[in-house]
Amino acid sequence: QPPFEIHPGNFSLNVSGVAGFFGGDEAISAIQTIHHYKARRFLGWYNSPGSWNVGKKFGKLAKSRFWDGLFPGPDEEPAKFFELDGKQGPKYVASRSGSILEYTGHLAYLIMQKSKEELGKQVKGRISKRNKVTIIKTQLLPKEAPVREIPPRRGHHTLVAVLPIAVSFTACALCGWINDWFCFSMILLGIVSSGLSSLVIGSARLKLQGVNSAPTAPPGDGMLMDGDDIVLLLGREEDVATITRGRFILEYDPWEPGEEPSEKRSEVPGEEPSEKPSEEPDEEPNTKQSEKPGEQPSEKPGEEPIRDEYAAIGLCSLLLVIQLLGQLLLIPQGTLFGQIMFLSSFAASWMYNLYLSSIDNEYIQERLVLKELHLEQKHMQTYVFGTRTAAAVFACLMLQPTDNDLGFEPESIIRNFIPNDTQVWVTWRKKVLE
């Protein structure tokens, strides 16, 4: 016989309560695309697994000392949090103005990825190392609205949400029918917390922020360079600048009445923010001294006020964390049938989240950029050259202006392709430029 025995008595170890720890990655990935589709935010009323991971992840969006202590992590803007911003774009070289951007923004990254997917037309000639050159003729964008709201698209996958919703409510009703109020309450709490989280997190408006350029700015012709992939951008300065420095933004409505959304989220890197105080007359320099005692001092220029931003998201994230703690305590107290119903609702919801996580977020963003910039397939032409020198000469000829612009320097364009200063390449550049 063993040296000792364990007599459990009436105690039983039930592991169904820890099921909420699983499926978090799929649930997070499913929420990442919630802003792209119409009515997705209203279809989250099902008992979704992974509430702990979802709550800890999206709780970082809430900005205040309380929420930062409860959900520690770096403060990121919503667009970057949902992977709508933050990707580093390729190098940009302007052929007219001579400006060089070592790194561009997220939209330029998407345009480059789209060009890499194009097959292109093979140009006859010697082949040593293939170089792909894509010509994009930018279309005229409205100057009056540099920030344009992107309407959500329709998706057939929204009909699939009927399955987890029906299974969750049916399981909840059956638990109540057999008087298993522990499992009934936990399934109902999962439905409510998931539904409210989808409703609040998906309430943001997706927008595309462009860049306004000076009226006297030269054309923005230039090229994006990413190794052997080159994209030639032809068009107005503001249209090209929207690709190189524009970005997606997510704008939530303020939770407190009368509060304006923070201007910090609408700034473009490299651009000075447009501030309303600059329009005020200069005859009131002593406005700060006229404040009454007890009032908060006015904000300093360039500083953002500290607000309890995204508090609704923080409350929903807290509810998701509480949901898991409740499941750990109460689900083992339920009946076997109730626990089976609880796991059944989890299984149906997990399959739906797995289906949503299969949607390519980056591919959707590529299509959004092309649609909002009015770029169709006829505006994009791709050619594949067999050598680097052929691609350099072709790019130089395509960027050459027709009005003999003095600001255009073909040698600088070729040098970006072949920077070597050996005697062979110096002689080759002179022959080509002649």
Order of helices and strands: HHHHEEHEEEHHEEEHEHHHEHHH
Mean pLDDT: 80
> Which strand order do you get reading across the main beta sheet?
2-1-7-8-4-10-3
Largest sheet: 7 strands, mixed
> Tell me, what's the shape?
elongated
Tell me the structural class. alpha+beta
The level of helicity is: 25-40%
Low-confidence stretches: 262-308
- Rg over alpha carbons: 28 Å
Please report which band the strand proportion falls in: under 5%, 5-15%, 15-25%, 25-35%, 35-45% or over 45%. Answer: 5-15%
Number of strands: 10
SS summary, helix count: 14
Separation, N- and C-terminal Cα atoms: 98 Å
Itemize the secondary structure elements and their pairings:
Elements: H1 24-32, H2 51-58, H3 65-70, H4 78-81, E1 91-94, E2 100-101, H5 106-117, E3 121-122, E4 131-137, E5 147-149, H6 162-177, H7 181-201, E6 205-209, E7 222-226, E8 229-234, H8 237-245, E9 247-251, H9 311-330, H10 336-357, H11 361-372, E10 380-385, H12 388-399, H13 410-417, H14 423-433
Parallel strand pairs: 3-10, 4-8
Antiparallel strand pairs: 1-2, 1-7, 4-10, 5-6, 6-9, 7-8
Helix pairs in contact: 1-2, 1-10, 2-9, 5-8, 5-11, 6-7, 6-10, 7-9, 7-10, 12-13
Textual characterization of the structure:
With 434 residues, the chain is an alpha+beta fold. Helix content is 39%, strand content 10%. The chain has helices at 24-32, 51-58, 65-70, 78-81, 106-117, 162-177, 181-201, 237-245, 311-330, 336-357, 361-372, 388-399, 410-417, 423-433; strands at 91-94, 100-101, 121-122, 131-137, 147-149, 205-209, 222-226, 229-234, 247-251, 380-385. The strands form two sheets. The protein has a seven-stranded mixed sheet, with helices on both faces. It has a three-stranded antiparallel sheet with strand order 5-6-9. Strand 7 (222-226) and strand 8 (229-234) form a beta hairpin. It starts with 23 loop residues before the first helix and ends with a helix. 37% of the residues are buried.
